[in-house]
Design a protein that fits this description.
It is built from eleven helices and 14 strands. It is α/β, with parallel strands linked by helices and 340 residues long. The radius of gyration is 19 Å and the shape is globular. The chain binds nicotinamide-adenine-dinucleotide and UDP-4-deoxy-4-formamido-beta-L-arabinopyranose.
Length: 340
C-alpha cells in the first residue's frame, strides 16, 4: 500500500483526510508543528479508524528533518496542508505568511525532489481567483489578483508548482482549490478547532448557538444577492477530504500540474445559513447587521465539473448535513479538543 506524507495533518482538513486515508489502508506519516492544532485530533482519528499513523512533530521549514523523513519512510506521495490561513492576520504579519506558506513549501519541494518523490496534492484556495470574475468560477479563468497576503501565498505557490512541473516532467501535481470548508466527521469526534475569535462564518455561528459568543455580526446586508448578504459555496469537510483521495487515485504519476475546484457548485447566503441552521438543529442564532468586511466579495461559488469528470469526485453532503455536523461537533466539544 502507498505511504503518504501529510504535512499539516493534525489540522482541520488534514485530520479528516488522514482518517479517510487510514480507512482506505494507506500508510500515513504526518508532519505538523502543532502551531494551530493538537495531537488529540490524531488520537481520535486513530480511535475512529482503529488504525495507527506515524506522527512527527516538526516544521516544514526544517530541511534536515524533511530529509530524515524521506530517508526513513518510503514516501510515495505528499499531501501538503501545512501553512497559516488567517486572512486578517496575514495583513498584519506578512513575513510570517511568506515564510510559512512560501518558504515552507519550497523547503518541502526541495526535499521531495532530493528524495525522488514527485507526487503532490497541494491545498490551494478559491481565493486565487481574486475578485475579477463572476461566479461560477472555473479553472480556465485567470488568477493573479488576490486581495490579501494569505491569498497571495497560495497564488505564488500555485505558480511555483506550475513552473516546477514545466521544468521536469516527473512532477505530478494536483492543485485543489477549496471553496468554503465546513462541517465535521459525522461522529462529532473531530472537527474545526479555531483558536480565539473565529474568522470564518461557521465556527462563529456554532459558538453563538452554544452560547460562547453573544451574537453573530453579518458583514453587509446590501450586496446584490438573493437577500443582500454574502453568498459562498460551503463544502463539507468529508467531501473535501475525499477529493484528496480521488486526486491521489486518479492523478498519481501523471505528468503535469493541474487545478481543480472543490466546491458543491452552489452558493448559500449568510441568512440562508442561519435559517437552515435553525431548521436542521432547532437552535436560533442571534445576529445583527454590521458593515461589509474589507476584501469580501458578494458571491463566490464553484463550477466543479472538472473535478467531477476528471477526478471522479462527487460531493455527497448538502448544506443541511454540513450544518448538522458542524453543530454536532460543537455540542460534543464545547471547548474544542481541549476539554471536549
Ligand atoms: P489548520 O490550521 O487547521 O491546519 C493547518 C495545519 O498546518 C495545522 O495543524 C498547523 O499546526 C500546521 N502547520 C502550520 N504551519 C506549519 C509549519 N510551518 N510546519 C508544519 N506544520 C505547520 O487549517 P485547515 O483549515 O485544515 O487548512 C489546511 C490547508 O488548507 C491550509 O494550507 C489552508 O491554507 C488551506 N485552505 C483552507 C481553507 C479553509 O477555509 N479552512 C480554505 C482553502 C484552503
Ligand atoms: C463567509 C461569509 C462573510 C464571518 C475565507 C478566506 C478564503 C478561504 C475560506 C482559505 C462571507 C460572512 C463571516 C462573520 C459574516 N480560506 N461572515 N460574519 O471570507 O468566504 O473565505 O475562508 O483559503 O481564502 O477568505 O469565508 O467564512 O470568513 O465568510 O457575515 O463573522 O460569511 O462576509 O460572506 P470567506 P468566511
Amino acid at each position: 500500500m502507498l505511504t503518504i506524507l501529510v504535512t499539516g495533518g493534525a489540522g482541520y482538513i488534514g485530520s479528516h483526510t488522514c482518517l479517510q486515508l487510514l480507512e482506505k489502508d494507506y500508510e500515513v506519516v504526518v508532519l505538523d508543528n502543532l502551531a494551530n492544532s493538537t495531537l488529540e485530533a490524531l488520537r481520535r482519528v486513530q480511535t475512529l479508524t482503529n488504525k495507527s499513523l506515524t506522527f512527527i512533530q516538526g516544521d516544514i521549514r526544517n530541511p534536515q528533518l524533511l530529509d530524515q523523513i524521506f530517508t526513513q519512510y518510503s514516501i510515495d506521495a505528499v499531501i501538503h496542508f501545512a501553512g497559516l490561513k488567517a486572512v486578517g492576520e496575514s495583513q498584519l504579519k506578512p513575513l510570517e505568511y511568506f515564510d510559512n506558506n512560501i518558504s515552507g513549501s519550497i523547503a518541502l519541494f526541495n526535499a521531495m525532489k532530493k528524495a525522488n518523490v514527485f507526487n503532490l496534492v497541494f491545498s490551494s484556495s478559491a481565493t486565487v481567483y481574486g475578485e475579477l470574475h463572476e461566479s461560477p468560477l472555473n479553472e480556465m479563468m485567470c488568477t493573479g489578483t488576490t486581495t490579501n497576503n494569505y491569498g497571495y501565498t497560495k497564488l505564488i505557490v500555485e505558480q511555483l508548482l506550475e513552473k516546477l512541473s514545466q521544468s521536469d516532467p516527473r512532477w505530478s501535481i494536483a492543485l485543489l482549490r477549496y471553496f468554503n470548508p465546513v462541517g465535521a466527521h459525522p461522529s462529532g469526534l473531530i472537527g474545526e478547532n479555531p483558536r480565539g475569535i473565529p474568522n470564518n462564518l461557521m465556527p462563529y455561528v456554532t459558538q453563538v448557538a452554544i452560547g460562547a459568543r453573544e451574537k453573530l455580526s453579518i458583514f453587509g446586508q446590501d450586496y446584490e444577492t438573493i437577500d443582500g448578504t454574502g453568498v459562498r459555496d460551503y463544502i463539507h469537510v468529508m467531501d473535501l477530504a475525499n477529493a484528496h483521495l480521488c486526486a491521489l487515485q486518479n492523478r498519481i504519476n501523471r505528468s503535469g500540474c493541474r487545478a481543480w475546484n472543490i466546491g458543491t457548485g452552489s452558493g448559500a447566503s449568510v441568512l440562508q445559513v442561519i435559517k437552515t441552521f435553525k431548521d436542521v438543529n432547532g437552535v436560533d442564532v442571534k445576529y445583527e447587521f454590521a458593515p461589509r468586511r474589507d476584501g469580501d466579495i458578494a458571491i463566490c461559488y464553484a463550477d466543479n465539473q472538472r473535478a467531477i469528470s476528471e477526478l471522479g469526485w462527487i460531493p455527497q453532503y448538502g448544506l443541511e448535513e454540513m450544518l448538522r455536523d458542524s453543530w454536532n461537533w460543537q455540542k460534543q466539544n464545547p471547548n474544542g479538543f481541549n476539554e471536549g
